[in-house]
Specification:
Largest sheet: 8 strands, antiparallel, barrel
Low-confidence stretches: 174-178
Structural class: mainly beta
Oligomer: single chain
Length: 385
């Protein structure tokens, strides 16, 4: 399935390089799930799943360069319309150009070779032949490194395009049946435990990667072996906060705003939150999202003060330096955390199974602003009631 897209690369920072139209070429290989008897395929109205390989020219090859992206995707019919579909994908991108304070200082979008990449598109089938479905599409794309190095303004793009869904000429599939499948409604409970290991940076003056440790429990229900909804409790420890406090850095010294943090460095470096989990189960693959409320995350106050005041706050902060204000934007990011990622289950979820294990990769954020990148593993116990 080739795609050809044109669009606009948004400005990531003041003085962002001049650029022409963004250009993308994407080649996808997928499988239509029409004849898949598994419950998720029928519940999601027979989507198409697969993987995409794309190359992006951001409109200025000297300063912005190219990105090569690899993304698993799912495309499903929207609003029960045969011609209208939604494509969602999430993966990684490699950049051949990135920020450099000497040779590429005007591009503050990307400072790492690898980034997360997310694409959401609305597609409309305009013409159908025996072998090809022609579609037009509109959507957005985002690249960022998950707060693993600053600067990290990221790329945001709006795109229009055309795609050609080339049908399998051999008309073969792993499922050799034309049976009309009947969905069996089901629901059962689950409890899960997840442990995660992440990496992030604190600020430009503390731009080295340090660890974030997570332990999380959740409880909820699974509907029709496809939709998973639950409540979660998350506990995290941020090594950057701990080292800042134990190192007696500028803002925690005697007479400074956070001097009391030295009385209990561990507690002030941790985060406790409660959240709502949502997941779409695609047999071995899970697309996971969480929105959570932070009961406490005291170390974030230090991070906000350093990063949201004057630019390029030094490690030794002068007394006259303007720090970030506790405004409404701060309250949202202090209180709300989100997480988006992919899971791989050891055993398929298309049928009820009492025990399961998974691994996953996640992008965690403070109300949409990247917080840390995480890999995780976990255990799920399912039960009927």
């Amino acid at each position: 399935m080739p795609e050809f897209l044109l669009g606009k690369t948004m400005e990531s920072n003041d003085g962002f390089p001049e650029r022409t139209l963004q250009k993308q070429i994407v080649i996808s290989v997928g499988r239509n799930q029409d004849n898949n008897p598994q419950s998720w395929a029928q519940e999601l109205n027979k989507p198409t799943t697969g993987i995409s390989l794309g190359i992006t020219d951001f409109g200025n090859t000297d300063d912005l360069g190219y990105a090569i992206s690899l993304l698993p995707f799912i495309e499903f019919k929207a609003f029960k319309q045969e011609r209208l579909s939604v494509l969602a994908s999430m993966g990684i991108s490699y950049f051949n150009k990135k920020y450099n304070s000497h040779t590429n200082f005007s591009n503050k979008a990307v400072t790492t070779d690898l980034t997360w990449c997310v694409r959401f598109f609305l597609k409309y089938k305009i013409y159908e032949t025996k072998n090809i479905d022609w579609k037009v599409e509109v959507g957005v794309a985002h690249h960022s490194n998950g707060h693993t190095r600053l600067l990290n303004q990221g790329y945001n793009s709006v795109l229009l395009g055309v795609s050609a869904d080339i049908k399998n000429p051999l008309n073969k599939d792993i499922y050799n049946t034309t049976e009309n499948f009947h969905l069996k409604k089901s629901s059962y409970g689950y409890v899960g435990l997840r442990t995660g290991y992440g990496k992030n940076v604190l600020a430009l003056a503390f731009n080295n990667l340090k660890d974030v440790y997570t332990i999380s429990g959740e409880i909820g229900k699974v509907y029709n072996n496809t939709y998973k909804i639950g409540l979660s409790v998350n506990y995290r420890f941020y090594e950057h906060y701990y080292d800042y406090i134990k190192g007696n850095e500028s803002l925690v010294r005697d007479g400074k705003e956070f001097e009391s943090y030295k009385e209990n460095p561990w507690y002030n470096s941790t985060n406790l939150s409660v959240g709502i989990q949502g997941e779409i189960l695609l047999n071995h693959i899970g697309i996971n999202f969480e929105a959570a409320y932070n009961i406490y995350k005291l170390g974030y106050k230090i991070e906000w003060r350093i990063n949201e005041g004057w630019d390029d706050t030094p490690r030794e902060i002068p007394d006259n330096w303007v720090l970030g204000e506790y405004n409404n934007k701060y309250k949202l990011k202090q209180n709300i955390s989100t997480r988006l990622g992919l899971k791989y289950y050891a055993f398929g979820t298309s049928d009820y199974r009492q025990h399961n294990l998974f691994i996953g990769a996640f992008l965690n954020a403070n109300y949409g602003q990247a917080d840390f990148t995480e890999i995780a593993c976990g255990y799920v116990y399912n039960f009927n009631f």
